[in-house]
Amino acid sequence: METVKGKSVRTVEGYFIDLRSFFRFLKLSKGLTEKEFEQISIDDVDLKMIESVTLTDVFEYMNYLSSVRNNNNNTRSRKCSSLRSFFRYLYAVTGQISSNPVEQLGNPKLPTRLPKHLDLEQSINLLEAVNGAYKERDYCILTLFLNCGMRLSELVGINYNDIRSDNTLIITGKGNKQRVVYLNDACINAIEAYRKVRPVNGIVYSDRNALFISRNKRRISPKTVQWLVKKYLKEINMDDGYSVHKLRHTAATLMYQQGDVDTRVLKDILGHENLSTTEIYTHLSNKQIKSAIESNPLAHVNLNEKKN
C-alpha cells in the first residue's frame, strides 16, 4: 500500500490496526488464547488460519465490535473496508487463498448527518479569542483552517518553501497528493505576522523547514494543534462536539453558502477524490430553508380568522 499505491504511513498503520483487531478476535473466539484482548499477539497468524476464515466469523466480529467494544457504524464500516482489501489482495492479486470469504460482506448503514460547523459570527469569535505567548502562531493556524479548509495532517506538514511568491500554498494531502491553494489576504497577513516572531535559533535540525514550530523548537505536533483548537473553542463555549476537523467543515460550508463557490471548485480546494464527498456541503442553510417555507403561497393563509 505504501510503496505501490503511495498511501501514507498513517493510512497503512490504520489498516494494520484494523487487521490486528480482527485476528485478535479470531484467536480469542476460537479458544487459541486466554490473554486480554490488547495483549494478544498476532505473530503466529499464518496462511492456514487466514484460509479458515468464514463470512460467519466476520459477522461475529462485527457483532463483537458493536456489543463489546462499542464501535460505531463509521468505525465498523472502515474495518469492513480493511478486511475486504486484505482478502481481495490475497485472493485476486497474489492467489494465496482459494476463495474470498468477505466477497459478500456489506458495510453497516451510515447515518446521513449534516457536517457540524461554526457559522460566520462564531468563526470570527474564535479568531478573536486567540491570546497568549503564541498568539501569532495560533491565530495563523486558525486562519488557515477556516480559510483553506485543510486537514490537520496537511497543516502540520506545511514547510516554509510550500508558500510561494505568487501567494499560493502547496498542500500535501492524503496519499502524498499535492494541490495548490490560493492564499487570501487574511491568510497572507496572518502568515506574515507569525513569520516575524517564529523561532529561528535552536530549532531541531530535521524540523528547520517546518512553518509551525512548537515551544520545544520542533515541528508542531497534531496533538498540540488539537489541544490549542479545543482551548479556543472552549473559550467561546463551542467545545462540545467541535474539533479541528469541524473547522474544515466550517471553511467548506462558508465558501459554499456565503461565497457561492461551485462544488467542483470546492472539491479541488478540499482535496477530495470524488465529487460525492464534497456534495455533503451543499446542504441548505436554515435561512434558505426558512425562506423556502415562507415562499409557499399558502404561508399566509389563515381561514380560522374568517370563520371567527
Keywords:
mainly alpha, 2 strands, two-stranded antiparallel sheet, 308 residues, globular
Order of SSEs, N→C? HHHHHHHEEHHHHHHH
Shape: globular
Distance between the first and last residues' Cα: 74 Å
**Count, helices:** 14
Largest sheet: 2 strands, antiparallel
Which percent bin holds the helix content? 40-55%
Strand content: under 5%
The parts where pLDDT drops under 50 for at least 5 residues are none
SSE class:
mainly alpha
Mean pLDDT: 87
Find the count of extended strands (DSSP E, 2+ residues): 2
Strand arrangement in the largest pleated sheet: 1-2
Please give the radius of gyration in angstroms. 25 Å
How is the secondary structure organized here?
Elements: H1 9-29, H2 47-51, H3 55-67, H4 73-93, H5 120-128, H6 135-148, H7 152-156, E1 168-172, E2 178-182, H8 185-197, H9 222-235, H10 244-257, H11 263-270, H12 275-278, H13 286-294, H14 303-307
